[in-house]
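Students often ask what a holo structure prediction actually looks like on paper. The answer is less mysterious than it sounds. You provide the chain, you provide the ligand, and the output is a string of discrete structure tokens encoding the 3D arrangement of the protein together with iron/sulfur cluster.
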Amino acid sequence: MRTIKAKSILQKAGGNSDFWFGIDYNINLYKGCPHGCIYCDSRSECYGIDHFDEVRIKENEIAILNKELQSKKKKGVVGIGAMSDTYNPFEKELEITRQALKLLQFYHFGVSIDTKSDLVVRDIDILKQMKNVIVKLTVTTADDELSKKIEPHVCVSSKRFKAMKALSDEGIFTGILFTPILPFITDQEDNIKAVVRLSHEHGAKFIYSMFGVTLRTNQRNYYYQQLDRLFPMLKEKYQESFGNRYMCEIQNYPHLKQVFINECQKYGLLYKMEDIIAAYKLENEHIQLTFDL
Ligand code: SF4
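The corresponding structure tokens follow.
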């Protein structure tokens, strides 16, 4: 594996307090991701990551992170995994993410993890000792065979649901990132209902969705190549429906969004960003109060 130089690891997150799950900082411990999702946004030209499927690590990153966390006066929630899944197969041996979590715990930072890998359960022991923790497992389809096609090098959806159950059983605030929903591939009403039901059955507190897929330069080329390989004639349907649009919304969007909301309400799952942020931060306050009494 290649090692690259890095001056800084901890980045200030953009946006306001309602920004992506209320994160204050971002870290990407690996550059590149081998999970092979056909729709991956991180392949987009604007991020400038060449050979995205190749994983690289950053020289002395844990030492750099240690210094940066130590010097930060403002504590907050650190997002991990936004650009590259931090639980790639190399993490099993390298334990870079695990070391980073230990540092976050030591310096009293919270964490917001995005992953598709069930390796995250390995770190339950550390996550349980941290405050302001939210773990999101990404699931795009309830069908394991379809997940093998569109997310070929990471565990199938049913394993991700099981991982979420393991986290939830240990009291960790967890839920599903149901995004992207791919037009003509995963946007059936049955799939939406099944993903919400399975989320509920596996201990999710929330499910967050965006009703379509975004496509940009490079990412679109890769996605269309994969459509040609896996779903003949679908590329042409995309081109006809969306042209070069960035946001490719699912068909029948208003109806399916309402179906999603109805199902979430039926099972008592949070689905609005502001509610999810308030709930996991409040849960931490509650735990803190319980400890203090
Ligand atoms: S797991 Fe995430 S970062 Fe990795 S290929 Fe899939 S979408 Fe991209």
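Residues 33, 35-37, 40, 42, 84-85, 116, 154 surround iron/sulfur cluster (CB under 6 Å).
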